[in-house]
Amino acid sequence: MFARAAAISRTGMTNLVRYSHSHGGIPGENLPFGLTNRYKLTAYFIVFLGSGLATPFFVLRHQLLKQ
């Protein structure tokens, strides 16, 4: 029973790798953003991380001004 489950898992992973349209071995190939333009990448990181870090402060300010 376990051997059959392992075989099904193995063929599933083989098919997943085979049909994932990835050539493999290229760093950053599977990321949803490009790594070629360093300034655009820096701007994306500032916006992404900055919005996550600033959100609690904006929520706190909103709650304090609501009173």
Name its key features:
2 helices, elongated, 69% helix, COX7C/Cox8, 67 residues, Cytochrome c oxidase subunit 7C, mitochondrial, mainly alpha, Cytochrome C Oxidase, Chain L
- Which regions are unreliable across 5 or more consecutive residues at pLDDT < 50? none
Strand proportion, as a percent range, falls in under 5%
- Count of helical stretches: 2
Helices and strands, in order, run as HH
Number of domains: 1
Task: Specify Rg, calculated over alpha carbons.
Answer: 22 Å
User: Which bin fits the share of residues in helices?
Assistant: 55-70%
Q: Total number of β-strand segments?
A: 0
Identify the overall geometry: elongated
Q: Tell me the structural class.
A: mainly alpha
Looking at how many chains there are and whether they match, the oligomeric state comes to: single chain
Report the CATH architecture.
Irregular
Q: Report how far the terminal alpha carbons are from each other.
A: 64 Å
**What's the CATH first level?**
Few Secondary Structures
GO biological process, one term: mitochondrial electron transport, cytochrome c to oxygen
Protein name: Cytochrome c oxidase subunit 7C, mitochondrial
Transmembrane segments: 41-60
Family: Belongs to the cytochrome c oxidase VIIc family.
Structure description:
It is a single chain. By secondary structure, the chain is mostly helical. It has a single domain (1-65), classed as Cytochrome C Oxidase, Chain L. It contains two helices and no strands. The protein has helices spanning 2-18, 38-66. The longest helix is centred in the C-terminal third of the chain and has 29 residues, at 38-66. The protein is elongated and about 65 Å long. The model has no long low-confidence stretch (mean pLDDT 82).
